[in-house]
């Protein structure tokens, strides 16, 4: 890939679909491939921050940096080779960015990081909490690409429907709104009596979303909670622990394939845009 920063928002309006885990996992794998990557925790719950082993009560966080209390270069912390984190803050809620100008706060923050401070990231991944409104708008306005994480459930489907509506509103209302959907990622997949039918529903929704489903469906593994306790990505934990667990290694391999697919879709999108 040519040298430029790609900003990816990984989200869904519904919670509990594994957005934060996906951000951490994808970011870690990108970093191991030599891509300089920044994770932005724009969720007031700060799970990405705690899951990275960083104190959630740090005052050097995204909210303080946006408001000029600390510099972005003071707030950004290195957590792995090629992998940095901009820690979250409990103040990252819609009421703190209620004005029209607040919609562009994340985009402007990224411009400061890349254009003023000259951090040469290949990828910036944004994590925002569930629910619509201003924080969702901020992430969509800031991003180049969107990956929507979902489970094969009624509520997650409704969340993707709402994301489609958010995209349409963004295109109509915001200058420079450029985010391109990369695809819908099915997470914590488990075969049930309804899974085939729900899969078909999601496939139909891609016509409105304007991007295909990702071909892999990420499974479930009993060791996922242990990874979080160790503040490690699943792929990282698999490398260190070497557990004899087929589901464990299958899921780690699926994440590698997912990152291959993400990079390929971005390359194709940029070729088509020329």
Task: Describe this entry's structure for a reader.
This protein is of the alpha/beta class and 274 residues long. The protein has one domain (6-273): P-loop containing nucleotide triphosphate hydrolases (Rossmann fold). 46% of the residues lie in helices and 15% in strands. It has helices at 19-32, 47-51, 62-66, 72-75, 105-116, 134-142, 154-173, 195-209, 224-229, 234-241, 246-273; strands spanning 6-11, 37-41, 77-80, 83-86, 123-127, 145-150, 180-186, 213-217. It has an eight-stranded mixed beta sheet with strand order 3-4-2-5-1-6-7-8, with helices on both faces. It is globular. The two termini are 14 Å apart.
Determine the N-to-C terminus distance. 14 Å
Class by helix and strand content?
Answer: alpha/beta
Number of strands: 8
Record the strand order, biggest sheet. Answer: 3-4-2-5-1-6-7-8
CATH topology: Rossmann fold
CATH superfamily descriptor: P-loop containing nucleotide triphosphate hydrolases
Number of helices: 11
Number of domains: 1
The multimeric state of the shown protein is: single chain
Cα Rg? 18 Å
User: Tell me, what's the shape?
Assistant: globular
Mean pLDDT: 89
Give the topology string: H per helix, E per strand: EHEHHHEEHEHEHEHEHHH
CATH architecture: 3-Layer(aba) Sandwich
Can you give the helix content as a percent range?
40-55%
Strand percentage, roughly?
Answer: 15-25%
> According to CATH, what is the class?
Alpha Beta
Low-confidence stretches: none
Sketch the major β-sheet. 8 strands, mixed
């Amino acid at each position: 890939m040519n040298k430029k920063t790609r900003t990816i928002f990984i989200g869904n309006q519904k919670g509990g679909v594994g957005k934060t885990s996906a951000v951490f996992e994808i970011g870690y794998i990108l970093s191991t491939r030599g891509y300089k990557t920044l994770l932005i925790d724009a969720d007031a719950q700060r799970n990405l921050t705690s899951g990275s082993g960083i104190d959630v009560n740090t005052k050097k966080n995204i909210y303080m940096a946006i408001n000029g209390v600390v510099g972005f270069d003071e707030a950004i912390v290195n957590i792995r080779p090629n992998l940095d984190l901009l820690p979250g803050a409990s103040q990252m809620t819609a009421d703190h960015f209620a004005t029209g100008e607040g919609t562009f706060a994340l985009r402007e923050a990224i411009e400061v990081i890349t254009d003023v401070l000259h951090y040469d990231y290949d990828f910036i991944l944004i994590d925002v909490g569930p629910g619509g409104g201003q924080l969702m708008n901020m992430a969509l306005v800031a991003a180049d690409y969107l990956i929507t994480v979902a489970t094969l459930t009624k509520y997650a489907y409704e969340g993707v429907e709402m994301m489609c509506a958010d995209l349409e509103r963004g295109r109509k209302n915001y200058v420079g709104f450029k985010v391109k959907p990369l695809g819908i990622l099915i997470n914590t997949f488990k075969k049930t009596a309804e899974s085939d039918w729900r899969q078909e529903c999601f496939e139909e929704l891609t016509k409105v979303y304007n991007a295909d489903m990702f071909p892999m469906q990420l499974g479930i593994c009993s060791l996922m909670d242990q990874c979080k306790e160790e503040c490690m990505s699943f792929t990282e934990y698999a490398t260190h622990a070497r557990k004899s667990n087929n589901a464990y290694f299958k899921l780690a391999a699926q994440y590698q394939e997912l990152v291959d697919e993400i990079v390929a879709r971005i390359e194709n999108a940029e070729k088509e845009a020329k």
